[in-house]
């Protein structure tokens, strides 16, 4: 009798969600938590995947994942604690974050000398802009204390450090691509100041000390502002960058970078003046040698 039994799946006309357009229609038409979780799970594995749709897809997932670290982000005004709806919203946001980690933020490039697998994505400004929008919001940053998402947090920490390094060190992709690479370089210059906030959060501001020649006035201004800010409403704002250096929090590390950068810039300017003076002296000596008559051992005053 068991051999005569048919699997119920054999009676279903099963088909996938083919395209991103179809995926979005299904998303918009569903309020069921299980359906929404399932759609997120497969959103990057559709049969009809088009490169030009990836920016929209990544940005959409970032919007859904917004606030993933805190369930309190998902309560609407008037919703009490005895409803499960905020839990459902939070679970959906965390699912979006997990998919982003697996499909975007995780570097799957095997060649350690090659750009990361996400590099070709972040050179698209619509994606890079959304990534900074996402990670500059406090409840979207990774946390070493989120033990239930430890793997995802490790991926995020690695991605953010890699992204900042990529922005500061980018020259070109392998074989020089001409105007395309120049456009990326120009775009990355615009986003360098935003990397300061990322590295501040990652407690890795010494990163900038290794790139002193590249630090511009805007980046230094942001570092100084962060060192001089008030963390609590009832505290006094530091009156000087030197005072900020003696604090016992992250502002001290920021002030250290500012002071060392100022000292380096001052010394760099001094060395440049010395080199210019030495160059002018050499030029004057060469001119003098050309104007001075050649002396062949004769006494000019017999």
Short description:
The protein has 302 residues and is mainly alpha-helical.
Task: Describe this protein's structure.
The mean pLDDT is 88. The chain contains eleven helices and no strands. It is 56% helix and 0% strand. By secondary structure, it is mostly helical. Helix 2 (33-42) runs parallel beside helix 4 and helix 3 packs across helix 4 (85-105). The protein has two domains: 15-108 and 115-202; 206-286, no CATH class.
How are helices and strands ordered from N to C? HHHHHHHHHHH
Mean pLDDT: 88
Give the domain tally: 2
How far apart, in Å, are the first and last alpha carbons? 136 Å
- Oligomeric state of the chains? single chain
**Total helical elements:** 11
Class by SSE composition: mainly alpha
The helicity comes to 55-70%
Query: What's the β-strand tally?
Result: 0
Radius of gyration: 29 Å
The general outline is elongated
Core attributes:
11 helices; elongated; 0% strand; 302 residues; 56% helix; mainly alpha
Q: How are the elements arranged and paired?
A:
Elements lengths: L19 H9 L4 H10 L11 H12 L19 H21 L13 H4 L2 H11 L14 H20 L9 H23 L15 H12 L12 H5 L4 H42 L11
């Amino acid at each position: 009798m068991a051999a005569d039994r048919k699997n119920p799946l054999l009676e279903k006309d099963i088909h996938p969600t083919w395209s991103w357009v179809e995926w979005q229609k299904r998303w918009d038409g569903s309020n069921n938590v299980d359906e929404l979780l399932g759609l997120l799970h497969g959103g990057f594995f559709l049969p009809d995947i088009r490169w030009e749709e990836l920016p929209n897809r990544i940005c959409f997932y970032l919007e859904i994942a917004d606030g993933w670290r805190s369930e309190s982000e998902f309560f609407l005004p008037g919703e009490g604690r005895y409803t499960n709806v905020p839990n459902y919203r939070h679970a959906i946001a965390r699912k979006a974050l997990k998919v982003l980690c697996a499909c975007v933020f995780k570097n799957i490039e095997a060649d350690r000398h090659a750009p990361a697998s996400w590099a070709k994505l972040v050179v698209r400004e619509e994606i890079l802009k959304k990534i900074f929008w996402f990670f500059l919001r406090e409840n979207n940053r990774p946390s070493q204390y989120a033990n239930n998402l430890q793997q995802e947090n490790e991926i995020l920490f690695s991605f953010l450090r890699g992204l900042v390094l990529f922005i500061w060190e980018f020259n070109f992709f392998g074989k020089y691509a001409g105007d395309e690479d120049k456009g990326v370089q120009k775009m990355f210059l615009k986003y360098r100041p935003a990397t300061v906030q990322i590295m501040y959060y990652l407690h890795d501001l010494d990163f900038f000390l290794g790139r002193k020649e590249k630090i511009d006035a805007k980046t230094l201004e942001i570092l100084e502002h962060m060192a001089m800010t008030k963390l609590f409403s009832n505290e006094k704002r530091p009156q000087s960058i030197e005072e900020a250096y003696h604090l016992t929090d992250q502002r001290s590390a920021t002030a250290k970078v500012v002071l060392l950068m100022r000292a380096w810039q001052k010394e760099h300017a001094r060395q440049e003046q010395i080199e210019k003076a030495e160059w002018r002296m050499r030029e004057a000596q060469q001119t003098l040698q050309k104007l001075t008559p050649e002396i062949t051992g004769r006494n000019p005053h017999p």
